[in-house]
Amino acid sequence: MNLHAIVIAIIVLTLLTVSLGRLGKVKTKADYLVAGRSLPAFVLVFTLLSSWIGSGSLLGGAENAYKHGFVALWQAGGGWAGLLLIYFIAPRARKFAQFTIPDLLETRYNQTARVLGVIAILLTYTAITSYQFIGGGDILHLIFPDAISPIMGRYILAAFVIVFTAIAGMSSVAYMDLFIGLLATVTMCLALPVLVHRAGGWPAVHSALPASHFQLFGDLTPIQCLELFLPTCLLLLGNQSMYQKFFSAKSEKDATRAVIGWIIGTIILETVIVAIAVTGSALFPTGEVSRAPREILAYSGLHGFSDGSFALKLLGALLMGAIFAKIISTANNWLFSPATNLVNDIYVRYLRPDASNKKILIVSRLMVVLLGLWALFQSLGTESVLKKALYAYTIYSAALTPVILAAFFWKRATAAAAVASIAVGTVVTVAWDTITPHLPSIIGQRDAIFPALVVSLLCLFTVSFLTPPPTLEHLQPFAER
């Protein structure tokens, strides 16, 4: 237990050192929001990897794998499909080179689209940050079961994240992600074969679990698998945090190269995460973790190596530390991103357009603190990380991804259509659980992704064809070279 505590302490101090080390390089709005547009491909790969793989995979995906097996890869597979399309978007995004997604929405559509985009992003990103706090709190409780409750752990994790994020903005986030991404990738890839060996080898894992754990659809229906696949895919395609990383790249070439590394890293790491969770379900089919399966990765790190040599115990401590660090990293990214919206898209755009860099930095840090507290409040009322993740993914998938992709690839999309699409996608997702009891069961039993996405797309296409086409002024920033 002391070893785990020491590893966590070293990681926290390292992250704080990295963050403070970047503080002196932050002088302007561009330094804080997009790291001065200076990130090379190597740094971009790991900051993209770290920002994407967080509690949604480490808790929600792992819980799904513990219960249902490799069918959990349908959730990860949505991200992989999105990444293949992002390869073609990345250079266009870097060429556009603004600060936020609402910048893009106003340039391509209008101010109303910008404001509605900010609302959808705030709902999505603070929800995602909230369950990072849950994951970090769970880990601290596992390490210090008598001293730290899961709820107290959420408060402590929130404090870490708010401080780390507020210090140096994107520059701090990106270089912390470089350290975390390397640590997590190496540690998890080393831990998997050791856990499989301790379970008696892969044949023993296979025989200990239901056959459905190793089938394409498992014990889910194809529709349920698509309900895992689509929100993840569409969130990734429109993910503001990702676009901000592209806006932060040194060049269009760096952005494109980073996507290649990101694809490879994501496929490897998410497959390893699911495999560890499946192996953990064979090693620990009963007991405390069976009642809280979202904790299976951290639980495996704590108990799967505890009776081995010092080297194995150290690997277990590093596995838990890597998961903890990944959660901090993801929370940093998803908290920082909406803070930039409030600063760039509301404060600077409408309230103080002539604000100095010093004033903008002060307000930016204040927004990080306020949004962090809101995310903490949400975490206190959340029970299922997987359900919260799919809710957050669906808001973004239905409200923003269609209009973002249309901005780059469909010249006929109009401002009125974008406004209608964002508004309807957001409202249907947020209201879905309220209206489903009044709908036929064949519809009401479905997750919100299909109805929200369908009505959002209908609005986008129908209104576009019923209104005049956009002007050349709106299309020019998105034209190909």
UniProtKB/TrEMBL annotation:
Subcellular localization(s) per the UniProt record: Membrane
InterPro entries reported for this sequence: Na/Glc_symporter_sf, Na/solute_symporter, Sodium:Solute_Symporter
GO molecular function, one term: transmembrane transporter activity
Membrane topology: Multi-pass membrane protein
Key words, A-Z: Membrane, Transmembrane, Transmembrane helix, Transport
GO cellular component entries: plasma membrane
PROSITE patterns: NA_SOLUT_SYMP_3
CDD domains (UniProt xref): SLC5sbd
Pfam family membership, one: SSF
Keyword Plastid: no
Transmembrane domains' residue ranges: 6-23, 35-53, 73-90, 115-134, 154-171, 178-196, 216-238, 259-284, 310-328, 360-377, 389-410, 417-436, 448-466
Main localization, broad class: membrane
Entry's family note: Belongs to the sodium:solute symporter (SSF) (TC 2.A.21) family.
Name of the protein described by the UniProt record: SSS family solute:Na+ symporter/sodium/proline symporter
Lineage: Bacteria, Pseudomonadati, Acidobacteriota, Terriglobia, Terriglobales
